[in-house]
Amino acid sequence: MAIRVKLFFGILAIGTFSCSFLFLMVNRYYGLNILNNAIVMSISGERNDETGFSESSPTDMTNSSHLSGFFKRLCNRDTYEEIRNNRSSPWFVKRFNPSIRPFLSPLSQGIAREDFDWWQSLQVHDISYEAFLAFLRKLDKLLPNSELLFKEKTRECISCAVVGNSQNLNGSAFGNAIDCHDYVFRINFGPVKGFENDVGTFTTHRFMFPGTATNVAQGTGLILVPFKMEDLKWLNNTLTKMSNKEKTIISTERKKVIVYNPAFIHYVHNNWAEKIGRYPSTGFLAVVFVLHYCDQVDLFGFGQDSHGTWLHYWDKKHKGIGPEHSANNERVMLERMRDNGIIRIFRKQESRR
Ligand code: C5P
């Protein structure tokens, strides 16, 4: 009897040890974190799982204390069902076109003539369609192994935070809520250092164009938005200089560079901005891009202040949005997406507009 009991506990101990070992190895190898009862894929950066929040409404937050429960509603089975359901509505289906590639990969595939003609209308200098395609083929050689946004979908519901640069992030304490998403997309200069409590620390991708280019941390994806031909040339120069080990315009990992598809800019302008404004802002382009990959899409740092002033969370000087974009229309469109249950927008009460 005593031998059987010893045998039983022996097997139990070995079994427990093996399972723990296996779990640790899997966790280490695949970067799996168990968070909020869901397994999420860690792309890069440190995660912060000190939530400090409990139950809440999933829609706009009037202040950070209402974030209670936010984490429970982050891509759980119910929210996933809700999102799927909302995405089958005629409102969404009419706008969403899954057949348009969000990024140009491989670049050599080029874009349709019609999209090129629209994109050409944004240019300062004329360029022929053939010259454009030839340039893309050249650039393609410099981006041989561009990583796709997601290598694979690791689980059913993917949560993504898009962090805009609005001053409404100041004092929001949204940092933890932002960091707990599977993917965190930031835009242009939007700094993290010194603003961690409000904007978080985790970044998987950064959208930018040359005018707003900053160094991209190792492991972070750079999503270049080419508004102009010069922007693609800049990328070409940056990558070429990198290969020569000269001082670069910015530092980034070549395989982490993704080029936003000009045809997709056209699609966002037509279907989502309803052709208002000359072309959409980087933030608006980022939101639609992310909609094509993620299930739960949460926006932080979007919105002017109560006087309609466009400020950045790190810079209190007045800054107007460029005349080529329509800030008001983009706000209206984002709020429509929210009202149709496609995205959630988090912002503080005093800066809501
Ligand atoms: O100013 P910037 O273009 O770098 O900001 C990135 C994005 O953040 C914008 O394109 C816009 O979508 C959003 N933003 C905002 N309200 C602000 C500032 C930025 O919605 N006050």
Q: What are the key terms here?
A:
353 residues; sialyltransferase cstii, chain A; 35% helix; globular; 13% strand; single chain; two-stranded antiparallel sheet; alpha/beta
Q: What is this entry, summarized?
A:
This protein is 35% helix and 13% strand.
Distance linking N and C termini = 75 Å
Number of helices: 11
Distinct small molecules bound, one entry per kind? cytidine-5'-monophosphate
What is the total domain count? 1
How would you portray this structure in words?
- There is one protein chain.
- The chain is of the alpha/beta class.
- The chain has a single domain, classed as Alpha-Beta Complex (sialyltransferase cstii, chain A), CATH 3.90.1480.20.
- The chain is built from eleven helices and eleven strands.
- It has helices at residues 2-30, 77-86, 90-95, 113-120, 129-142, 175-179, 196-199, 229-243, 262-272, 282-291, 327-339; strands at residues 32-35, 38-41, 159-163, 183-187, 205-208, 221-224, 257-259, 296-300, 310-312, 315-319, 344-346.
- The strands form three sheets. Strands 7-6-5-4-3-8-11 form a seven-stranded parallel sheet.
- α4 (113-120) packs across α9 (262-272), α5 (129-142) packs parallel to α8 and α9 packs across α10.
- The radius of gyration is 22 Å and the shape is globular.
- Mean pLDDT is 80; it is low at 22-63.
- The structure holds cytidine-5'-monophosphate.
- Cytidine-5'-monophosphate is lined by residues 164-167, 187-188, 212, 281-284, 302-304, 310-312.
